[in-house]
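Lecture notes, continued. The same structure-token format from the folding unit now serves as the input rather than the output. Read the line below as a description of shape only.
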């Protein structure tokens, strides 16, 4: 793949009347954000890159988690908040970019990390990852995460035995994000502490909300309160 030609060469035109060539060395997504729908981008890719992409596409089957238009055979996985907490607290082996030097043998070793809970707060704020960024693309994650309205139990995830006896939470508010990366809108659900009813907040509009509508694919930030 030794060539004097740039791997990617792109030109951006606005309303079809202006075009400016841009030389891109690595990832197109790191340099250009396509927000204005009136912009047109044309990409000339080095032939060796195209061949490599075709080879990998034929070798690796498409994953149902790959962003794009789902086929009829693809179904969204059933994910619970407990699954997210298990993933958050599991042991992770870091890549070769994060090697550490052993003080005894002086060799570089693979490192691992693990996050655990020790003290539980009165108010717990959980942010779900709704925006995915890679070297090649950005995407909005709209998977439904099944989150409990009442009795969220964190006792399996806390190491401090003194905290396990009082580790249940109730949901009191949800922040939602609708739309995509280029533009979106935020709304919220909140539970009234006096009448214990749920309400929907959309800009200056407030209305009653049913408990069954609180958790959906747009849920972004969850606010839980520890049970007394």
């Amino acid at each position: 793949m030794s060539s004097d030609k740039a791997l990617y060469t792109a030109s951006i035109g606005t309303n079809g009347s202006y075009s400016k060539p841009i030389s891109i060395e690595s990832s197109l997504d790191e340099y250009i954000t396509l927000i204005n729908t009136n912009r047109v981008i044309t990409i000339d890719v080095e032939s060796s890159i195209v061949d490599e992409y075709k080879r990998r596409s034929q070798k690796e089957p498409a994953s149902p988690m790959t962003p794009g238009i789902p086929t009829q055979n693809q179904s969204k996985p059933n994910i619970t908040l407990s699954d997210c907490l298990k993933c958050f607290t599991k042991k992770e082996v870091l890549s070769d970019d994060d090697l550490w030097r052993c003080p005894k043998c002086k060799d570089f070793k693979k490192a691992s990390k693990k996050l655990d809970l020790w003290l539980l707060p009165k108010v717990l704020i959980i942010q779900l990852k709704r925006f995915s960024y890679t070297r090649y693309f950005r995407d909005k994650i709209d998977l439904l995460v099944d989150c409990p309205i009442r009795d969220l139990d964190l006792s399996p995830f806390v190491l401090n035995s003194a905290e396990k006896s009082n580790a249940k939470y109730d949901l009191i508010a949800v922040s939602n994000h609708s739309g995509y990366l280029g533009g979106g809108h935020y709304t919220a659900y909140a539970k009234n502490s006096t009448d214990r009813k749920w309400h929907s907040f959309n800009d200056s509009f407030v209305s009653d909300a049913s408990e069954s509508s609180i958790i959906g694919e747009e849920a972004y930030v969850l606010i839980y309160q520890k049970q007394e």
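Point for the exam: Residues 16 and 65 are 35 Å apart (CA to CA).
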